Amino acid sequence: MAVPKKKTSKAKKRARKAVWKRKASFEAEKALSLGKAVLSGRSSFIYPQQEDEEQEES
Question: Distance of alpha carbon 21 from its chain centroid, rounded?
Fold first, then answer.
């Protein structure tokens, strides 16, 4: 006979959600900071080019 699972407490659910939001917030902050640095010229970040694959095909 099927037995229902125990309900997750509000505290656990909220804690898990807070961790998820904190991680997302940190990543968003990093992306915004990088974007600002690139636009202001403080960073020389350029996405890596796919030169290796192009050279192998030739």
Answer: 11
